[in-house]
Amino acid sequence: MKFRLLTAIWGSAFVDVFVRGTIRSLLAEGNLEALCRNHQTEYTIVTTQSSAALLRQSAVFAKLNELLPVDFLILDEADFNPDHFGSHWDLWRKPVEKARQLGEIVFLIIPDIIYSQGTLARWCRAFEQGKKMVFTPGPQVVLETLLPELERRFPDPEGPIELSAEEAVSSLLEHLHPLVITMFRNSPSGIRHPEYCLYGFPKGILARVLTGQPFCFDPNFFRMLASFMPEDNFDTISYEPVTILSLE
C-alpha cells in the first residue's frame, strides 16, 4: 500500500504545538516508524516559507525528517486564513488530488493532536483488512495544562511522547476542555451545535458522536463532499476508538 501523510500548518504558535506535542507523539511506538516499516509512505506539509523555516530549526523535526523525509508545499501567507477554523480543508485539496492520481491513501495529520502509541499502525491495519476510510473521535483537551504535563512526564524535548491509549483516555478525563463540558446532557451552558452528546458516569463518559471527520481515506474509492465526507460505500468505513487528543 502507498500512504500520503498530509499536514497544513501556519504561524509560530501552531508550529510550537506541532513540534512540542504532535511530532513527538508521532515518534512513539506504533506510529510513524511502524507505518514506514511496512508500507511506502510519503509526507507533505502545506505551509508558509516562514513556518517551514521554523520547522527546519527544530531538532525534533529533524528526527522526523530522518525517519520520513518531508516534502514542503510552500504557499503565500495570503493563502492562509487564521480567522477561519476550517481553512485547512481548502489547503488539503491540492495534495489530496495529487494522492488520488498516485493511488495513495491519505492520512490527515492534524498539527495540534497527540497520537497515542500504536494509533497509526491501528489505522493502517484497518486498510490492510479492506476498509477504505477511518473515523475516530478526537476530543478536545486543555492545551495549557496537558502539554506541560506531558513535557514533565517525557522531559527529553527530542524524545517521543509514549502515551498509551489507556493513558490518553485518562488524560482526556483529567484535562477535558470547557467546550466539551458544555456538551454534557445536564450542562447548564449547553452549546447550540455540539459535536457529541455526553453522559457522565463515575468512571468515565458515554459519548454519542454527532459530527466528525475522516482522518484517513482512499480518495479514489468514494464520492466525497468538499470536506472529504463520503456520500457512498459506508460499509467500508472503520470507526475506531479514542486514541488521539486535540489540544485546544
What does this structure look like?
By secondary structure, the protein is α/β, with parallel strands linked by helices. It has nine helices and twelve strands. The longest helix has 16 residues, at 87-102. Strand 8 (196-201) and strand 9 (204-209) form a beta hairpin. It has a seven-stranded mixed β-sheet with strand order 3-2-1-4-10-6-11, sandwiched between helices. The mean pLDDT is 94. The radius of gyration is 18 Å and the shape is globular. The protein starts with a strand and ends with a strand. Helices cover 36% and strands 22% of the residues.
Features:
248 residues; alpha/beta; seven-stranded mixed sheet; three-stranded mixed sheet; 12 strands; 36% helix; 22% strand; globular
Secondary structure: elements and pairs:
Layout: E1 2-8, H1 12-26, H2 32-38, E2 40-47, H3 49-56, H4 59-67, E3 70-74, H5 87-102, E4 105-108, E5 113-115, H6 119-128, E6 133-135, E7 140-141, H7 143-153, H8 165-174, H9 178-181, E8 196-201, E9 204-209, E10 214-217, E11 237-239, E12 244-247
Parallel strand pairs: 1-2, 1-4, 2-3, 6-11, 7-12
Antiparallel strand pairs: 4-10, 5-12, 6-10, 8-9
* Helix fraction by DSSP (H/I, runs of at least 4): 25-40%
How many helices does DSSP assign? 9
Q: What sequence of helices (H) and strands (E) makes up the elements?
A: EHHEHHEHEEHEEHHHEEEEE
Structural Rg: 18 Å
Strand content: 15-25%
Give the number of DSSP strands: 12
Spatial gap, N to C terminus: 33 Å
As an assembly, this protein is: single chain
Mean pLDDT value:
94
Strand order of the largest sheet: 3-2-1-4-10-6-11
Q: Profile the largest sheet.
A: 7 strands, mixed
Principal-axes shape call = globular
Poorly predicted segments: none
Helix/strand class: alpha/beta
